[in-house]
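Person: I keep going back and forth on a fold encoding question. Show me how you would write down a chain together with its backbone fold. Please set it down just below, with no commentary around it:
Helper:
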Amino acid sequence: MENQIKSTDPTPDDLPDYNSHFVPGPPGPAVPPPAGYPGVLPMGYYSPQQPSTFPLHQPTGSALPVQYQPGKYPMPHQSAPVMWMPGPAPMLNCPPGLEYLTQLDNIHVLQHFEPLEMYTGFETNNRYDVKNNSNQMVYIVNEDTDDFTRNAYRTLRPFVLRITDYMGREVMTMQRPFRCSCCCFCCPSARQELEVQCPPGVTIGFVAEHWNLCRAVYSIQNEKKENVLRVRGPCSTYGCGSDSVFEVQSLDGVSNIGSIIRKWNGLLSAMADADHFDIHFPLDLDVKMKAMVFGACFLIDFMYFERSPHRRSSR
């Protein structure tokens, strides 16, 4: 009898070809991205529809350019400088894009600092970030005015502001027509006005200036130009070292509805156009009126806090 001893741990000379036995299975279910974020891309790539994520590095060897949404650009040491407020679901009787405001009773409007404007005297388009109390981005606001109009008319220039959401969609448009300032202030043709459209092309209201001897007064109107609220500013809007408070009141002036506060930022407020506004309104206020108070902030900024470089250099 012949005894055969078999090895318990055989080592074959050639490994089998596992790829030849691989049979792909059916694809698994797609997992949707979280609410408020349109998708996920590989590390190092940035989607123009997802401005909440910036690349940690620029991909090499790629023919596709890296694009950024308007706003604060990331620094090399910042991995995620911008966090966006999650996009809410569409709501009935709410213009598309205003769903964010239904969840907020306070927003911050932060103007970008423009060194070119400060040092060269060349007026540039204004840019603003709109954030909530959690420092999450709600909107981005960009002025769309040509170079000649900006530098010829300065603070009196007509302008168009385009408000975009986290996907880069224009959800609101604000327009200020040109009004002559050479005639009497009590003349209606000299009073400033701002039109708010949401969605763009659909007017939801106006912000109209009223003549007053010693303070800023505005009326907030609906799409039919019917007065709904009024804004009453301080006697001196050029206060140095303190905040400037514009109260949002009922038409009779008895009830205080909210406020638009221009924060004092120290030396930056005195020397440059980098304003910071806090806007307060009731949580249950009609969303269109919230948008109108939001729009009044920009008309106030251009009329009282937008400083012309020529005027600064002449002091």
User: Anything to note?
Assistant: The first helix runs from residue 99 to 102. The mean pLDDT is 76. Residues 215 and 236 are 7 Å apart (CA to CA).
